[in-house]
Design brief:
alpha/beta, 8 helices, four-stranded antiparallel beta sheet, five-stranded parallel beta sheet, single chain
């Protein structure tokens, strides 16, 4: 999942970016509120981690502006401001969760997974389509109860499709979900990953909508 991290402290920001990447997230890191707002308006992030004490534009202002623009991206506010009134205000203007620094990295990742899951109407952590079960926390996939070895990119692609069942996603949309800044994308990368997923999980799982993109029906084999 591709997320935006808005944090001006270089040590905290680098630590969070590296740690979240190790836990399977693709992280774009910005260091001021103006850049955070621009990126959230420009890209379909799965979630955002937003510090409140940002330069140029306060995190509260960023949150207010993106919500006013109709942007529903899940936002986890990460801040040193632990006063109850600050937390209440942040939640009231549109934050989905609120964590006070210092935060355990694994807890932060779990909270992000929960926000992303809820944003897609998925109440359970483990996603299931027919005989395919995906566990985002363990980054594992099973087919008919047997473990299936996927590459990191194949797993991420399947995760995106399973979160968006019954929706056609174009190649460009999938690339935006899977690749963060500076990552080179080969022209046929999505097609190759789709081919590999079909080979490993069954040709009927993912459907091609010619000229548009790909869709994973909620009941693919029925």
């Amino acid at each position: 999942m591709r997320i935006l991290l808005a944090e001006d402290d270089p040590l905290i920001g680098e630590g969070l970016r590296a740690g979240l990447r190790q836990l399977g997230f693709h992280v774009d890191w910005v260091r001021d509120g103006g850049a955070a707002e621009r990126e959230l308006r420009a890209h379909p992030y799965a979630a955002a981690v937003l510090d409140l004490g940002l330069p140029l534009k306060d995190g509260m202002e960023v949150l207010t502006e993106i919500r006013r623009a109709g942007n529903a991206v899940p936002v986890l506010v990460l801040t040193a401001r632990d006063a109850v009134p600050d937390r209440i205000r942040g939640l009231d203007i549109g934050a989905d969760d609120y964590v006070v620094k210092p935060v355990d990295l694994h807890e932060l990742a779990a909270r992000l997974r929960a926000l992303i899951r809820r944003a897609h109407g998925q109440p359970q952590e483990r996603l299931r389509i027919d005989d395919v079960v995906l566990d985002p926390a363990a980054r594992s996939v099973e087919l008919e109860g047997d473990s299936v070895a996927l590459s990191a990119r194949e797993f991420d692609l399947l995760h995106v499709l399973m979160l968006n069942t019954d929706q056609v996603l174009s190649r460009e949309q999938l690339e935006q979900h899977l690749y963060s800044w500076g990552q080179e994308v080969e022209s046929n990368a999505i097609e190759v990953h789709i081919h590999n997923l079909r080979r490993k999980l069954g040709s009927a799982l993912i459907h091609t909508v010619r000229g548009v993109g790909y869709i994973l029906p909620r009941a693919s084999k029925k």
